[in-house]
Every structure is written in structure tokens, then in C-alpha cells.
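User: Run a structure prediction on this.
Assistant: Running it now.
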Amino acid sequence: METTDIDERTREAEIEAIKQVVAVVEHSQNNELPDEFVGLFRSDAIWTTGHGRRLIGRDEISAFTHQVLPGAMKDLTATYEVVHVVFIRPDVAAVKVRQRYLTPDGRPIEGESEGSPLYVMAKEDERWRLVACQNTAVVDS
């Protein structure tokens, strides 16, 4: 048996739990709640921002998030959609997300690119946590 083999019912339940974490990411970003966002990370997490800034550890992620998130969502909102999940092991998943920026009434913002984050998540103590995350802006070619 491969380490990625899990039954379909378990897989669906784990994907739903992962989607709930991503929903909290969306909620914390849209409501500018840095502590809620930072609480999703493991203490030793790695996060690379959409502009390439590397942040290592929850403390560094927290300091950055507390600096940039308040006021960042003025006049916009963001959606985060899980588009693909690969279970590396039953308790480790690579999660591809589609991030879209919209006006408060739900219209796409002209000139604003989508984001294409990749979240590596680990399940610890029955809870999925963000471990290694890379935000990437989608550039139209």
C-alpha cells in the first residue's frame, strides 16, 4: 500500500476539513484579522508572499501580517477556492488554491491579477495546519 492510499470517504472528509481551513484564510483576510490568520500556521511554518518575501516561523509571519493586513482589504474582497488536493501522506497534503480579488459587491477588479497559492498542510492533533505556503500572482501572458 502506498502512503497516499486512503479510502474515498476519508479522503472526502479530509478535503472538506482542508476547505474549512482555507475558508478561515478567506475570512481572516477579508475581515483583516491577523491573529485568526496566524493561528492557522504551525510554529515552524514557512510562507513566501506573492512578492517573494520569505517568512520563517509563526512569529515572523505574525509580525508581517500585523503590519500589512490592517487596511489591506479596503474597497476589495477576496475569494479562496480549493482547486486541487494531493495527499502526500494521509496526514500531509499539497493544496492548490485559486485566489480572486473582487469589489465589495462581487465584481472582478479590473487590472487585478488572480493569485495561485500552494499550501502544504499537515494534520496534527486532528487539526490541519499550514506548514509551507507559497503565494504566486498569476501574470497574464
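Residues 8-134 form a domain with the Nuclear Transport Factor 2; Chain: A, fold (CATH 3.10.450.50).
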